[in-house]
Please model this.
Amino acid sequence: MTDIQATDFEALDRLEAEEKAKTPTKKVNLLGLSPKKMDEFFTGLGEKTFRTQQMLKWIHQIGESDFDKMTNMSKAMRAKLAEVAEISLPEIVMDKTSVDGTRKWVMRMPGGSSIETVYIPEKERGTLCISSQIGCALDCSFCSTGKQGFNRDLSVAEIIGQLFVASQSLDTPGEKRVRRITNVVMMGMGEPLLNFDNVVDSMELMLNDFAYSLSKRRVTLSTSGVVPMMDKLGDVADVSLAVSLHAGNDKLRDVLVPINKKYPIKELIEATNRYLEKLPDRRKATIEYTMMKDVNDGIEDAEEIAEVLKNTPCKINLIPFNPFPNSGYERPSNNRVYRFRDLLHERGFIVTIRSTRGDDIDAACGQLVGQVEDRTRRQQKYIDLHQVNDSDAV
Ligand code: SAH
Ligand code: SF4
Model:
């Protein structure tokens, strides 16, 4: 009897092993778990949720990716973690620093495409500009990312991985940790609101006290104006909002920012106001305005945007166009930029001019290209959609 049972168990073990080999269980990458998902993960292992705080600290604050070195977890716990989980980091293929201190990392993503992340040090703050997608489907006429087409959304691990890599690289080994990244802007490659869930989870990690503990005022999401998603964002997050306007009338904005055909300026401004109303504090939106010579840099353009923005609490950030090969646009002279700024000042707006940083390493706004293979043709689908059918939601 005993013999037969033993044999049965052996057979069972063999079958199980064969089954396991056929379908290798994919390990969970803990780098990409939001605090809530990390809680679910530990609960699933039969653990208490205080493990989440420990794990977030190990990964995002200490930069540890080896379970064996996590000394406040028992040996059994670490063995269990190694069995079901991993901490898989992005692969850095380039790390360059500009003469002005701007630093750019190029990271290779599974599938062969790459993305770019830029750190801009200033006197009082350090800003990290991160990407949310590989390429972008929205095809703004003056943006080199848009010209690359769209490849895919970045996962949470790939979005937060940019912050992980930058904070680790900016630390000097052996020296006391200094917080160098004080601000994060989602202004790299891609339209963050079209990768909504992953961007929201990533922002939760940015704000979490056990991860990056950034102030919600210092995490900024920039959008070209995906109106329904702006409303959705207001329901789940209260980060700062930047809106890429670039024109004060629909005729011009339709050309520069094609998504305007679907969500024209009036709707965009109303959505911006709605978003600001939902915030618990009186925060202003940032209005981004990329200036292109003889396209949108005239006094009449400034008058138009002053009118459009008259009821929106905002500060305006003028971005002199950053050229890239075959863009077809030019940067206006400084005098024209100053004249534009002065008019908006006269109309009572707070206006800043974004200085071009990291020009020598192609790290300026709109120059991030990475390496994008547009396999999905999602960009073409968007263009077709906007031309033929204006009724579908994005
Ligand atoms: N997709 C989002 C965020 C990424 S683009 C958005 O459009 O808002 C970030 C900012 O860079 C946007 O304001 C965009 O208009 C600006 N930009 C794009 N190309 C540029 C260029 N060549 N020169 C200057 N600014 C540019
Ligand atoms: Fe996409 Fe923003 Fe570039 Fe437009 S400006 S193509 S939305 S990344």
Q: What stands out?
A: The first helix runs from residue 2 to 22. Confidence is low (pLDDT under 50) at residues 379-394. Residues 23-86 form a domain with the DNA polymerase; domain 1 fold (CATH 1.10.150.530).
